UniProtKB/TrEMBL annotation:
Family: Belongs to the indoleamine 2,3-dioxygenase family.
A Pfam family this chain is assigned to: IDO
GO BP annotations, alphabetical order: 'de novo' NAD+ biosynthetic process from L-tryptophan; L-tryptophan catabolic process to kynurenine
Keywords: Heme, Iron, Membrane, Metal-binding, Transmembrane, Transmembrane helix
Gene3D superfamilies in UniProt: 1.20.58.480
InterPro entries: Indolamine_dOase, Trp/Indoleamine_2_3_dOase-like
TM regions (residue ranges): 7-25
Name recorded for this polypeptide: Indoleamine 2,3-dioxygenase
Gene Ontology MF terms in the entry: heme binding; indoleamine 2,3-dioxygenase activity; metal ion binding
Highest taxon, organism lineage: Eukaryota
Sites where the protein binds heme b: 445
Cellular component aspect of the GO annotation: cytoplasm
Length: 493
């Protein structure tokens, strides 16, 4: 097949797959795919109705946890031998509070007393954030935004001891994790990110008036600790990111913590949670993949090609349950199309900035996007693909230890060195299978993203969380967004 015919084929396939999975044919399709008798459809083995099949386990939380713990120990044991293992180990130790996905403590009763004020403010402000009936009137919206922000600012002034918070952050920076444990640091980072995004939008659904703001003066209680924590994670955005707002918004038991749509219907609340859960689950199911990437690289460096083949094959197999976390959720029955754009997506956007004091240029920060997910960046690096995100965007949104891990994976990637014959050829074909699965994902993602982005939202201008305000209408905006998605699909070879 020529690249063009293959591209058209994948696009059509992605659309058919999406339509079938959103239709009453879903149970039939799932059953057929799980039997994987048709070679091409073995790509989909592992998809289930209720969520991913966790390889080698009964699918329960504890088994996955035990499996992941074992994988993380293996990586740790290799960390004296190879920098690819030591860079992931450093990520787990420093940002992950000893685990992956990172441990995030949302039980404020265990937090240092001085930080509890932020959680109290969350509890008070969260019910005021969603508007059950959104207004199209700028005057009404302006009043709502002003009231929300002034109540927020008032509570921050009354309750937060900023000097005390700064002292605690300085203690963390000097390694005093005994008084500010890392899992609490992560939970607080998430809470702060929630507060900033809530203050930024002041009303969900996001409205046109707030979208047109160019900059925002956030209260210092939300600025000072944020700057300190961003510098800790090696980031320089005003906006939250995939880690701060999504991955860290789940505790170790997998409970969803800080909410956008408190008090709204169960359809809205479950759509919000299901969407957020994908980003956490991808990192849970990603652990065996990170481990196989690392073990594959180490085995290759040692010239142990049989073992290298096994590890690359494992990545291919683990990708099925991992991608099903996305396929099984991103459809109308789990994430309602009628609510996602207005009531979920907007909160994760940012779209304001400031004048850069060094070069005088206006710097605008975008919000969150799936393009910040570590798993896809690490896989791309292992396949030898160029990074999807430009360096400056990575430095804003992808924590430095994650960036380093991907750089090391890319540097030690060996795909381009493989020959066509013998064991090399076998490893090469496993790589090709991984590429095929990623292409099917990218193609299906293109179709599904379009469906969600084209839902009516008369209160706002076309916008994605990851690219901020778009073109004047959604049709032109989709053309713009499609360039990224098609471009990446074509690069995935
Ligand atoms: C309905 C929800 C979603 C919509 C509408 C959507 C939309 C988009 C759009 C328009 C892009 C291209 C522009 C950009 O880079 O920001 C993109 C990129 C991307 N998205 Fe999503 N997204 C959604 C959910 C997700 C989820 C749940 C994941 C995975 C956990 C994900 C993973 C990615 C990745 C990895 C990219 C980078 C391009 C690539 O690797 O193909 N997205 N998304």
């Amino acid at each position: 097949m020529t690249p063009l015919t293959e591209f058209i084929f994948l696009s059509v396939l992605g659309s058919i797959f999406t339509i079938l999975f959103s239709s009453p044919w879903r149970p039939w399709l799932t059953k057929r795919l799980s039997q994987h008798t048709v070679p091409f459809f073995s790509l989909f083995k592992g998809f289930t109705l209720s969520g991913p099949v966790l390889a080698g386990s009964t699918g329960n939380h504890h088994t996955t946890e035990a499996l992941n713990r074992h994988k993380l120990d293996t990586i740790h044991d290799l960390s004296d031998c190879h920098e690819v293992a030591s860079s992931f180990s450093a990520l787990v130790k420093q940002d992950g509070a000893g685990s992956w996905p990172p441990k995030s403590n949302h039980n404020e009763r265990t937090w240092p007393a001085i930080l509890q004020a932020y959680k109290e403010i969350y509890h008070e402000m969260a019910p005021l954030l969603p508007a059950e009936n959104v207004s199209l009137d700028d005057t009404v919206n302006e009043q709502r935004i002003v009231e929300f922000r002034s109540r927020f600012a008032q509570l921050l002034t009354q309750k937060v001891d900023l000097a005390g918070v700064e002292k605690l952050l300085r203690a963390a920076d000097s390694g005093r994790w005994d008084i500010f444990p890392k899992d609490v640091y992560n939970g607080f980072y998430c809470c702060l990110a929630w507060c900033r995004h809530a203050y930024r939008w002041a009303s969900i659904p996001v409205v046109r008036l707030a979208q047109l703001e160019k900059s925002i003066a956030l209260p210092e209680e939300l600025v000072v600790p944020w700057n300190s924590m961003q510098s800790h994670f090696g980031l320089d955005s005003e906006s939250g990111n995939n880690m701060s707002n999504l991955v860290l918004n789940f505790n170790t038991a997998g409970d969803y913590a800080l909410k956008i749509n408190t008090g709204l219907s169960s359809l809205v609340q479950s759509s919000e949670e299901e969407f957020a859960r994908i980003f956490h689950e991808v990192e849970v199911l990603g652990v065996p993949i990170y481990s196989s990437i690392i073990e594959g690289i180490v085995a290759h460096a040692r010239g142990d090609k049989e073992s290298c083949l096994e590890h690359v094959r494992d990545i291919r197999d683990q990708l099925r349950p991992l991608l099903s976390s996305y396929y099984d959720r991103v459809h109308d029955a789990r994430i309602a199309r009628s609510v996602w754009l207005s009531r979920v997506q907007g909160f994760y956007a940012w779209g304001v900035g400031h004048q850069n004091s060094t070069n005088g240029e206006w710097e605008k920060f975008d919000g969150l996007s799936g393009n910040q997910v570590l798993l896809f960046q690490a896989l791309d690096a292992f396949l030898g693909l160029e990074a999807y995100l430009p360096k400056v965007i990575q430095e804003r949104n992808v924590p430095v230890l994650q960036r380093r891990f991907c750089e090391v994976v890319k540097r030690h990637g060996f795909r381009s060195e493989l020959g066509n014959e013998g064991i090399d050829g076998k490893i090469k074909r496993e790589f090709e299978d991984i590429v095929k699965r990623l292409r099917v994902f990218r193609s299906a993602h293109r179709t599904r993203a379009k469906v969600y982005l084209t839902q009516p939202a008369p209160e706002r201008l076309p916008m994605t969380a990851g690219k901020s305000l778009l073109k004047e209408d959604m049709e032109q905006s989709l053309v713009f967004l499609d360039q990224f998605m098609v471009g990446r699909l074509l690069q995935t070879v």
